[in-house]
Amino acid sequence: MKPLKIAIQKSGRLNEKSVELLKNCGLNFENYKSSLISPVSNFPLEILFLRDDDIPEYVQDGIADLGIVGENVIQETEVEVTYLQKLGFGKCSLKIAVQNNSSIESLAELDGKSIATTYPVILDKFLKSNNIQADIRTISGSVEISPGLGLSDAICDLVSTGGTLKSNGLKPFADVMSSEAVLIGRKGSENEDLVQELIQRVQSVLRAKETKYVVLNVSRHNLDTVLQLLPGVKSPSVVPLAEEDWVAVHTVIPERDFWDRISQLKQAGAQGIVVMPIEKIIL
Ligand code: ATP
Ligand code: MG
């Protein structure tokens, strides 16, 4: 069988998390920095390490079956690919920013102004949909220094913490798009069965990340109250303990509810609460 190919970023902000995700899917491969292709020893898959800008086209053209890339890059390259799964990392937003002392405070005031960006396609669509005519100056990097150099009145750039903008004396005032890393594919892939298997592995790792395995002890007297606080994957397991009238409850709960639930459980009489990470959840 012809191996699948998945394209991930060779180096940069998405590389480490993409490699970690694939390793957590149980795939064994060498993360060579020097090689462009790495075979997976225990699944019919090859990993292609590429510049992120090239990933959407490789997937569209069928050179790779799957890819991991930021939504911003997909929108900018305007390719036809299928979004398979949001991956929860590489979160950022594309924002318009101006210098702290700029008089521009609203979108309408960008009319007739110049904006430097590495995302001309997305910015152009955004400006058109807001009926703003501005001069888009496409540059290939270090966008944040352009207002200071007098190259543009504003910038449109990716922001995660906002630290880079701040340290360059810039303030954001409009959101163009928000983005995160996504798994992409193509309609009509020859290896549809393998693609589906890999998607399922990815989803089981993501589900596990969002949840915790919780074990706690409770007296039978308080069991009902505690069970009401614990919606499990199916339903919690209740196991008798050596001490009569006490049971252990095992369940899986979403990480986001975690601290809330723990204090409610304690109030309801739960003791010896143990919380464990989960590796995979296969439904
Ligand atoms: P390459 O060499 O592969 O072309 P790059 O320099 O274009 O890399 P990176 O800076 O590594 O790209 O960013 C990769 C992706 O990480 C971005 O396209 C975006 O989706 C995401 N990202 C998350 N936070 C940020 C941020 N603060 N700035 C830029 N990109 C971010
Ligand atoms: Mg790039």
Please render the helix and strand layout as text.
Layout: E1 4-9, H1 15-24, E2 37-39, E3 45-50, H2 55-60, E4 66-70, H3 71-77, E5 82-86, E6 92-99, E7 114-117, H4 120-129, E8 135-138, E9 154-159, H5 163-167, E10 170-179, E11 181-185, H6 192-209, E12 211-219, H7 220-228, E13 237-240, E14 246-254, H8 258-267, E15 271-277
Parallel strand pairs: 1-3, 1-4, 7-8, 7-9
Antiparallel strand pairs: 2-3, 4-11, 5-11, 6-9, 6-10, 12-14, 12-15, 13-14
The structure holds adenosine-5'-triphosphate and magnesium ion.
Word description of this protein:
Pfam families: HisG, HisG_C. InterPro entries: ATP-PRT_HisG_long, ATP_PRibTrfase_cat, ATP_PRibTrfase_CS, ATP_PRibTrfase_HisG, HisG_C, N-reg_PII-like_a/b, N-reg_PII/ATP_PRibTrfase_C. Residues 51-203 form the ATP phosphoribosyltransferase catalytic domain. With 283 residues, this protein is an alpha/beta fold. It has 3 domains: 4-89 and 181-191, 3-Layer(aba) Sandwich (D-Maltodextrin-Binding Protein, domain 2), CATH 3.40.190.10; 92-179, 3-Layer(aba) Sandwich (D-Maltodextrin-Binding Protein, domain 2), CATH 3.40.190; 211-277, Alpha-Beta Plaits (2-Layer Sandwich). It contains 8 helices and 15 strands. The chain has helices at 15-24, 55-60, 71-77, 120-129, 163-167, 192-209, 220-228, 258-267, and strands at 4-9, 37-39, 45-50, 66-70, 82-86, 92-99, 114-117, 135-138, 154-159, 170-179, 181-185, 211-219, 237-240, 246-254, 271-277. The strands form 3 sheets. The chain has a 6-stranded mixed β-sheet with strand order 2-3-1-4-11-5. Strands 8-7-9-6-10 form a 5-stranded mixed β-sheet. The two termini are 27 Å apart. The model has no long low-confidence stretch (mean pLDDT 94). Residues 9, 12-14, 51-53, 70, 72-73, 90, 92, 158-160, 179 line the site of adenosine-5'-triphosphate. Magnesium ion (MG) binds at residues 51-53.
